[in-house]
Each structure stands twice: as structure tokens, then as C-alpha cells.
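re the bet — no i am not wrong, look at it urself. input seq straight from the record:
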Amino acid sequence: MSLIKQLWLTIVVLLLLAFVGSLFIGVSTSRHYIEQEVRIKNADNANALALSMSQLDKDPVTIELLMAAQYDTGHYQLIELRAPDGEIIERRESSEHIGDLPGWFVDLVHFEVPPGQAVVQDGWRQYGTLTLQSQHSFAYRSLWRSARNLAGWFAVAGAISLLMAWWIVRTIRQPLLSVVAQARDIGVRRFTTSREPRTRELREVVQAMNQLSGTVREMLGQESEKLDLLRRRLQHDPVTGVLDRDAFLAQLRASLGSNGHRASGSLAMVRLARLTEVNQRLGRPRTDALLKELAHSLDQLGKVRGGGLVGRLNGSDFALLLPGSGDLEELGHELSQRLQALQEEEKAATLGLPSALLDYAQGDHPNELLASLDGALAGAEAKGDRGQSIAQGAARETLYASHADWREALHQAMAQGVYLGHYPVLDSQDRLLHHECPARLRLKGEWRPAGVFLPWISRLELDTELDLAVARAAIKDIAQRGKPVGINLSPASIRDSRFVLDLRALLRSHPEAAEKLWLELPESMAIHNLAGFRSLCRELQPLGCRIGLEHVGAEFNHIADLHDLGLAYLKIDDSLVKGVDTSAEQQTILRGMATLCHSLGILAIAEGVDRVAETRMLFELGLDGVTGPGVRQHDKPA
């Protein structure tokens, strides 16, 4: 039995005991008082009537009239006059009229009052003995009214007491429920914090649990920062802090092979011309600071555009990867403004900052893209210190000529239905965790991958419509196959509170499918829009669906900020996975990431796995699942 039920039971029992005790004492006291009063009344009336008879002539008619007059003036059950030999001289008797009272009450009370007796004298001789018994019906009715009034007043007092008890129990229940919820969260390794209640005992418990959560968060923060420092040493340029060449190329390859919004976008390359001359003129420290400022400016542009990545390809060349960005002229204008600001800030030397831009799409080859950019950058350098060129990308089929055509085609395709691809995510025992299901739309008679239409989905602000269509397709797929399905949600949809409510209503109407649905978002979106992500978790997790992050790596040092969200899984970016079987540094990073994930009850899944040796090593490091082009169900590593 719960504590709240025990409290209510205790309160009700105490009220009943108080009521029964009060009623018993009240009725008993009144009964005793009434019996005493009736006894005195019987004795006094008997003596008074006997005295009157003693002073009168003992004429039978006179005696009869006197007794009749006494009987008619009071509530008497019996008035009797007997001679000394026991013969009845005169008698008046009636039955008790208590039919309007409950029989159980009469039996329970049952007055036991002896009749009053007195001697009637005839001179010096005893004439007879007078017996007088009062009627008890009025006493029963009086006691019944008193008991009912007492019960009524007690009912009112009991109702008021119950209301007060309800308020008191409610003030105890709310913080108690918070303590229970926090204890359950800690039990599943969600280290939440709660507001301290006013109740001292509960406050001490909450303080201890909050201290535990704070300690765990601090520990996670410290460990994630250590891992992030190791990752930066492995993947980042020590001078500028941006990705080095190998890490940047790994991100570019991952984007070109992606089935999501990263599959198409823009590439930009910027060169600090005449680096040797600048170094001689400004000195090494100032040149390094200048390179860092250039990298920071490109990084800021990437963040403004959303999801941009900056890499240092060599001593003087920097590259910027912008997924989903399509207007090269607008991007080139923003880039030129930032480069001009850098040139104007440096007064000690004339800086050459030529740039080149190129769009990319799913299936392009990284080396070909960089070669095209390098050639365009050489042409831009020939134009002057702020020269800029837009490289000619690979010839691609243009599905539709205008925005209106794209909008109409996308609406029609989503109305016809979304096709979901199926790529398995397996654990170490080759069991299916879920299927990754990227969306396909039928455009111009063919099922097109997400890289073709997602840029236009974002440009035309159709993200929420597409995500709801994908969610409906996933629910239908789960109903047909009975297998768990993972789908991606766009950052734009999460920022739309209406979408979250619509998705919640959809999942609530399909509770069985919701329990097999895995929802994932990019790591950067969750970190930089933490309020929206918390709202999503709060609305959807009670329905049973699992929420996780994909492409985890660059922001892993912020994992402590997510310790109380109850995430189900993290998918670690393939830039940390590729070649893990030959890199001790990567093995150290991934082992630490898996340990931290497990400390929070989160599954650690590796993305982009394409070799059996990588799969074997990842499971040895403690990861829970793998996915990628090299992962097929029933293909166990030897």
C-alpha cells in the first residue's frame, strides 16, 4: 500500500474513531442524565400525589378523579394505587408511543428507570401504596434528536477536516512524487534535479539526490572534456583549431555518401596568398594569429549558415563545407565581406585572400571536387587579392526549372507517399536494433534520394510537412513488418512547436508503433537548440519512442548538458570510426565515449562502418551497435 493511501486510511480511521467516541459519550451522558431526571420526576410526582390523597377523604370517586386528573396532566405510562393487601384500588396505564423512532435505537438506548412509589395515609392508618411510572417516549425522542444533531455537526466538521487533510496530503504528495520521479530517473541513469520541498525530511532527501546528480554531471563534463581534448589533438590543426586535412576529407566523404541533408551543399576554399612573405613581414606569432582569425571567420560563417565545417588543407588553404547551402552567389558575397574585413584589420601587410566556390551533390568524388576548387582558386588568385571564382561543378540533371515547379512536384510526391530505405543497425550478436530508414520521394517517375530534394525542402520551408509524411510512413512500415524503424527529424521541424504537437498526436493514436520508433537528430541541433530538444523529449518519450543523436563527435564535450534528457542512443560520427582498427588514439576516444554513454544508460552506435575489422574492434571497445555500408545482417565478424 502506498504512503498516500496509508495517510488517507489513517485520517479516515481517526475521524471515524472521533465520531464514534463522541457519539457514544454524548448519547451515554444524555441517557444517564435523562434517566436521573425521570427517576426524580417519578419520585417527586408520586410523593406529591400521595400527599394530596392522604389529606382527602378516601372516597373511591374522589380517589379516581384525582388519579385521572394527574394522569391527564402529564406523560405517564402507569399510575396505580394498591391496598396494603395487594388489591388494586385504582389503575391508569398506557403503552409507549415510539413507533416513529428506529427500533435499533430504542433497543440500544433502553431506559431503565424504576417507578416512583409513595404511601397514602388514612389518618394513622396506611391506606395504600401509590406507584407512578413516567412515559419514556419523550425521552427517546429527545435523545434521538440530540444524536442526530451531533451526527450532523460531526459530518460538517468531518467534511471540513477531510478538506484540510486533502490539502495537507496534497502538499506532501507533490514533493513526494517529485522525489519518486527523481529516484526513478537516477535508477535509469537520468541524473535530474528537483526543486527542494518545504518538508524537512523530504528536503534532505532531495538535497542528497541533487548533490548526486550534480556530482555525476561534473564527472561527465570532466571526462567528456578529456575525450574532446584527445579528439582535437587527433583531428584538429594545432595552430588554428579547425579540422586538419584528413579529418576534413573524412567529413566530406561522409557527406557525399549520406542519405540526409548533408548529401548536397556548397564547398568554399580560401587561400592566404604569399604566406612566406607574410610570415617574414609579420613574424611567426602574428602570422599564426592571422591564420587563426581567418579560420575563426570561416567557422562563424559556417555556424551562421548552419552546420558548416572548416578544415585546413595545407599551410595556406582553408576549406568550408556547408551542407544544404545552394546559392553560391549569395554565399560568395558573404564570404567576400568577411575576407575584406580581415584585410582591412591588418595594416602591417597587404593580404591576398582569393576564394573559390563549388556546389556538390551525393555521389560526387572528393578528389574531383577539390581539384575543381583548386583550379578555380588559382584563377581567382590571378584576379587580385580579393579575387573570387565559382567553379563549374559536375553536370547534373535539373529536375525542375523554377521554385513553383519544385513546390508543386514536392507536394504531389509527399501526397503520393514516402518510400523508406532500410539499412540495419546491428548489435554484437548480429541482432537488429532498428532499421535506418532514409526517405525517398518519387520525382519525374523515379525514387530520388534525400540528397536530391532536401535542399529544396529546406528552401521552400516544407520540412515539417516532409517529416510528418516520413513519420506516417514509418508507422505504416512498423505495422506491416513489425520491426523497429529509425527516422531523421530536421532541425526546422524541432523549432516548430506545432509540429511537435502534431507528431505527438500521431504517435498517441498508434501506441504500439510508437514503442518501435527511433527518432534521431543531428548532434549540433540538440546542443545549440537545447530548449527545443528538451521540449521534444518531454512530449514524445512518455509515448515509448526512443530519441537519439546522430553524427556525434564534434560536440561530445557537451554531453553532460544532456544527462537528464533520457536519451536512448548516440550514433558516433564516422570520422571517428574510419580506420579505428589501426589507430590507437581513435580506440582510446571511442572506448571513453562508450563508457560515458553507458554511465548514462545510452547505447553507443558507430556510423559509417564498412569493414569487418572495424566492426570487430568497435565491439571490443564496448560499443553497442554498428551501421554503415559494410554492415549487413547475418554478416558476423569472424
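see?? The chain has a mean pLDDT of 84. told u. also The first helix runs from residue 3 to 55. so pay up
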